[in-house]
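A.,

Following up on our hallway conversation. Structure tokens first:
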């Protein structure tokens, strides 16, 4: 299975494009349209799109983003560090989720990825963002935690635990 994701470098927010066994330029372009519409609905715009030189990223793919005012930047040939944020995210996804999960098909993979990406964007603290999450606000300031009522919720069948203060 091939998975298409986008990462906003400033916030580390991840967007899932989809998964398919046979990606082609038409599928990739449709995923680009879906992302562009979602960003437009949220009223968000970006200045750049960085992608590698895969032949699936055709002119129609680039045009989807150019029409939204983005500038397209291609990574240099044989320069894996130019795409380091995405490479690191894939490593994190594998280490925290996929290496521990038996995937049963495309739909199961997409559901697992959506659940993990929601956790990654909304609950998983990021060291590079001062332990904040890409979507949620800053961490609450607390003093003594002994009197607080903390609740645990399981994600992905207990593979990941999220903790929050009970109201």
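Then the amino acids I'd put at each of the 167 positions:
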């Amino acid at each position: 299975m091939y998975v298409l994701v986008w990462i906003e470098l400033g916030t580390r927010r991840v967007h899932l494009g989809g998964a398919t066994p046979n990606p082609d330029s038409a599928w990739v372009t449709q995923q680009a349209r879906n992302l562009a519409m979602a960003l437009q609905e949220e009223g968000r715009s970006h200045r750049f799109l960085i992608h590698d030189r895969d032949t699936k990223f055709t002119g129609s793919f680039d045009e989807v983003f150019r029409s939204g005012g983005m500038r397209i930047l291609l990574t240099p040939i044989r320069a894996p560090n130019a795409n380091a944020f995405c490479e690191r995210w894939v490593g994190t996804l594998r280490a925290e989720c996929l290496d521990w999960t038996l995937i049963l098909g495309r739909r199961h993979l997409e559901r697992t990825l959506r659940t993990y990406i929601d956790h990654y964007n909304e609950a998983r603290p990021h060291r590079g963002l001062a332990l904040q999450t890409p979507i949620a606000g800053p961490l609450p300031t607390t003093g003594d935690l002994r009197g607080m009522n903390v609740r645990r919720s399981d994600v992905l069948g207990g593979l990941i635990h999220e903790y929050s203060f009970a109201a």
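Residues 25-41 form the longest helix (17 residues). Curious whether your intuition agrees with the design.

B.
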